[in-house]
Prior knowledge:
Elements: H1 2-6, E1 9-13, H2 18-33, E2 37-43, H3 44-54, H4 67-73, E3 77-82, H5 96-105, H6 107-121, E4 128-132, H7 138-144, E5 148-153, H8 157-164, H9 166-171, H10 210-222, E6 227-230, H11 238-245, E7 250-252, H12 278-281, E8 289-293, H13 302-315, E9 318-322, H14 341-345, E10 349-352, H15 357-361, E11 366-371, H16 375-383, E12 388-390, H17 397-407, E13 411-413, H18 422-433, H19 435-455, H20 461-481
Helix pairs in contact: 5-10, 13-18, 18-19
Amino acid sequence: MEDNQEKPHAILMPCPLQGHIIPFVHLAINLASKGFTITFINTEFTHYRITKATTSANNQEYYDIFTEARTQFGFDIRYRIVSDGFPLVFDRAVNREQFLKGMLYIFSAHVDDLVGKLEQNTKPKITCLLADTFYVWPSMVAKKYNLVNISFWTEPALDFSLYYHWDLLKINGHFGYYDNREDTRKYIPGVEAIEPKDLPSYLQDTQTTTMNKMIYKGYENVKEADFIICNTIQELEPKPISALNEKQPFYSIGPIFLLNGFTNISIPTSLWSESDCTQWLQPKPHGSVLYVSFGSVAHCSKKDIIEIAHGLLLSKVSFIWVLRNDIVSSDDDDDILPVGFEDEIRDKGLIVPWCCQISVISNPTVGGFLTHCGWNSVLESIWYSVPMLCYPIFTDQITNRKLVVDDWKVGLNFCDKKEIRRDEVSEKINRLMSGKSATDLRNNIKQVKKTLQDAVSTIGSSERNFNKFIGDVKAKISEAAK
Ligand SMILES: O=c1ccn([C@@H]2O[C@H](COP(=O)(O)OP(=O)(O)O[C@H]3O[C@H](CO)[C@@H](O)[C@H](O)[C@H]3O)[C@@H](O)[C@H]2O)c(=O)[nH]1
């Protein structure tokens, strides 16, 4: 009991999105392996979806995603759920605006209520709040309960720097105006130069939206955090990271899914049921299959889906295409693919609503990834040495494309013109999969992979930063307890 009292105890809260839940779960495991007690909080809706997708458990209310981590590794990870303010039946995608307003103005009251209860009844005592940078309430909650306030950013440091200096963009007439200036931005600390077209979509907006407000408030909030951790790699983004470090303690600890070698723990995180693609991949030649996925939130138009489908056929390349059932948002039409497409692809193509991405791209038959450039997908693709065809849709994906294509040269642009056309889709797929361009990309990606490998080695930067972060947090907890 004495020992337990000494243990740091962190509450972890990801945004209720697939690309945030996964890195937060890896973070929970890593912190627990360093002796932290963790209370991991998912929203009730996220919990419901994971449960539905990954288990046949009858009593879903009591299902706990960390059971295996506790029994197999003895980690002290506890699991709780919190209401996001809406009933389970509420359609959060269709009513996105209303949902975002709830996250902006109401969710904090539910979090405050739960943290208050945990604070009274939990041993060891809760000492840290570790929340997603997108949340607007962590500093309020951390102050109220005297918790060390840690923010976790699940995107690159470059995107963080741009949002962090939102005020500079505004002062310089580059954001928030109907006619935003179009010249290169050269005054963001740690970012030599960035073109307007490469900014995250929310920083290209000319009008204030609820999402803008949320990010803006999130970034006001993060300025009060005691520590910021980021799922990136110091050697890949040295300048933004060192500029940010002059402002606040900022630790790059990525790729978090590789840190400390806990890649084999299976913790249910998937919001959709996964189709198994192993059998289908098995007879395919090495490096011959293109994997196509646009992540968990982005939407495409039916017109673009049709052009991509024709482009895939024209390319004659074998492919697995993850087509979520909500990929086309504004169309009630269930038939989004060209007529007869599924007959035409026969054994050349496999369409699935969701799969275990890591198990697909780690398969040696996969040689290319047509991706929306979500940050987790980028890191995973580099790790498994799969070059990318970049089709960024919104948010940080736009900026991530610049890192992948222009800076690291491990991917190609999908469509150079605004409009997606089947002939260009086919041509780009072939350039990604074969010939000199493919060889160059494969050579480059091996080098970038080496950077990731070094960073997570026992003497690598991410490992060192993570240990330093742990030491600094413990010191801060002791200070706060005085
Ligand atoms: O069929 C699939 C598709 C995806 N994944 C996994 O789901 C995660 C998806 O994350 P990501 O590639 O980052 O895409 P999003 O789900 O779109 O992620 C959101 O969160 C990311 C991190 O903040 C941002 O970079 C993205 O722009 C944002 O859309 C990855 O770990 C994938 O391995 C699967 O397991 N199966």
